[in-house]
Amino acid sequence: MIVAFSVTPLGVGEDVGEYVADAVRVVRESGLPNRTDAMFTSVEGEWDEVMDVVRRAVAAVEQRAPRVSLVLKADIRPGVTDGLTSKVETVERHLAE
């Protein structure tokens, strides 16, 4: 399973980078495969472990922000591993044709 999610603190002003870093730190420390870009952090693993990481990332932001917004998108595909890499490689292969 791959989950792409975005945690946004509300009520803290426009500069939210340090709050987002708290969430990303939780993801990176989880040991699960992950990627962060300008809009989302993606994490790959089994349902329970991925959802636990998302929950803890939200909690990290919630400790410092009065309100938190969570956007989440999941690709639930049993038996697939290394999807973070293989999905991108497939697109790149088609682009190279």
UniProtKB/TrEMBL annotation:
Belongs to the UPF0045 family. InterPro entries: MTH1187/YkoF-like, Thiamine_BP, UPF0045_domain. It comes from the Bacteria. This is MTH1187 family thiamine-binding protein. Signal peptide: none annotated. Residues 3-92 form the Thiamine-binding protein domain. Pfam families: Thiamine_BP.
